Amino acid sequence: MRFLTLRYFHEVAKLGSIRKAADRLHVAASAVSRQIAQLEKELDAEMFERSKVGVKLTAAGEILMRQTTRMFRDLDRARGEIGDLRGLRRGEVHLWAMEGVVSGILPAVLSRFHRQFPGVTFHVITSSTDRMVEALLDDVADVAITFNATPRAEIEVIAEYVEPISCLVSPKHRFANRKKLTLAEICEEPLALPDHSFGLRQVFERAAHKRRLHPRSVVTTNSLEFTKTLAGTGEMLAFMPALTVLRETEAGVLRVIPVSDEDFTLARSSISVHRDRPLPHAARAFLKMLAAEIEGLSRNRHLRKARK
To answer: Does the first or last residue of the chain, that is N or C, have fewer Cβ atoms within 10 Å of its Cβ?
Structure first.
């Protein structure tokens, strides 16, 4: 089985299209098709289901895709380690994070890192907590910033920041001037919630179930930005850590109201990696800077609480 054949297969699997893979690889689509046909003949199994709109992995194709993903990531690591011999002049970091973090603290950390190491590139993916944990386990992510993730033996938490989940309301909502809200009050209002793969939703569901409450979930979405936007209309309430809505609160678009519920006050953001997988040098350097930022936030939080 040739390296070139696996490369062609991997690109087709990622893009879901032979034509798009050919464009990415700068070869003719017929050349890609021939390599896929040769691969299927060699393995005596179809790798893709063909249709007019593209291709989809078969069960056999998914098995091979998992292996080629690991193989190409290992090659990237080797390339990065070789680059380390010349100092941190190049490298890639695959970072997964929740949307609010990407628009909150992450830009400043990334900018600072880029000034120090301009040759390092980043692939930043926003997703749910469950999907981020999968990305670490599948060796797709180097580092993940998860929210309230369930502990797993394979995942190592490098740094953690306790950030209560707050209720987001519009300045024109009747709750806008409240100092605190109960979960019972919140559940009587129309809600915009992330889907069940998000740590935010899981905290909310557990707390509501524990208190036998029946929330009025009007919108369920995989976009935290969308829940913020809906809260800003004044028609619905949403939830997020205050740290992730700094821009909106400073602009007066949203108000952040604490929730008087222990499950909400103990929520946390975690910087996580795979426990048994060594990181490329670029990812290690970025992880160190990111962990220092999170630990600084945590110290400042403790100082603020001590002064009260």
So the answer is: C
